[in-house]
Amino acid sequence: MNPLKSFLHPRNPIFRNRLLSVISFATLAVLFFASVCSADVLKIAVDDTIQPVTVEYIGRAIDTAAKNHDQAVLIEINTPGGLVDSTREIIDHITASHVPVIVYVTPAGSRAGSAGIFILEAADVAAMAPGTAAGAAHPVTLYGKPDDTMMKKIENDAAALMRSVATRRGRNVDLAESAVRESKSFTEQEALDKKLIDYVASSEQDLFRQMDGKTFKRFDGTSATLTLTGQPVTIYQMTLKERILSYIMDPDITLIFLLIGALCVYFEFNHPGAVLPGTVGVIFILLAAFALHLLPMSFAALTMILVAFALFAAEAKFASHGVLTTGGIALLTLGGLLLVDGPIPEMRVHLATALAVSIPLGLITAFLMSIAVRARRNKQVSGAAGLIGEFGIAQSMLAPAGKVFVHGELWDAVSTIPVAAGDQIVVRQIDGLTLRVEPTMATRPAMA
After folding, report:
1. Taking the CB of residue 158, how many other CB atoms lie within 10 A of it?
2. What is the pLDDT of residue 88?
3. CATH number of the domain at 38-240, out of 3.90.950.10, 3.60.140.10, 3.90.226.10, 2.30.30.60?
């Protein structure tokens, strides 16, 4: 028989084994490439104010979706608004994304307020759940209104950004701009009817079903379609760092960290060597400083907080019967309220937090400082210095040197005034192991 035919014969065990190996390898390769090519929908949830941590989270998700060749990024959003600079960075990430970005305001009761509507309009596909709202995007400043010219510039800049994203997405430009200039807000049905959004959907699967096969306009002017029904949805979580930063960037938490840190550092200064309070204080202050670096901080408010602690210290020294402490608490409260100059109430320190922290902290600090000052003023009662002012009995004639009995001990002593044995003396000074004493008024010899 031909050797080749003999080798290829199905009953040849070598041929059968090699054929099975090839089939197994091919099967694994097909499964591998199928898993690589099956693009998921990457989903993230933004349920917070718009700030630098949000920028990092969204940007990282979009980059990951591009690397994984996912079909789309789904951003579920519920936000009262946030910082203008952070909003612009998020819009840049969305408009530059190679992967289509869907922004979906959900669940019912959620909103895309202020900065949120900018992000909603910038999306490739904009959708809202029933019972949601979007709008009220007029730029605001918290403390101190700019002059009319500056305010007009800020408003025009925000309106231009809204016109830009709405135009490129083919949405209702005039109505989108009215959310900025007139602070208008819209329900989900109003937004759909007036072409601010593309869909109203009760769930993400309902949204995917409505989107299937429909064309939408990308930011570069091209058209695209998606078929997402039944596709796996992968939830993309925040990193531990992002979760921690998101927590401490709450202005209320930032203020609490700052004041607790200051109190711990003060305690360390008054009790050197305690170590633990100083360590905790430095950590809390550094965390607060990092958050304030990312938030719109008011340096005037920080100065008020420092002056408040100075007033607490002054109360302990001058004993104003609470006047300085009251002034310090008032300054600490005001400084806390003004510490974060946020554009929306959710990005400011609340009055209840400022009062709840300032009043107890002011009273505790003033109390600790008064104890420390009193301790420094009190006469030393231990060691050799504790003998100053103590009374004793002359054990021998002091003329000028002799022996005295003070505090249960026998001391060498000298006196400029003669003292008879058995008379009472008072210690005025210590020179090494010798006491300088004087007779008490009752035992001084009468003047001639």
Report:
1. 23
2. 94
3. 3.90.226.10
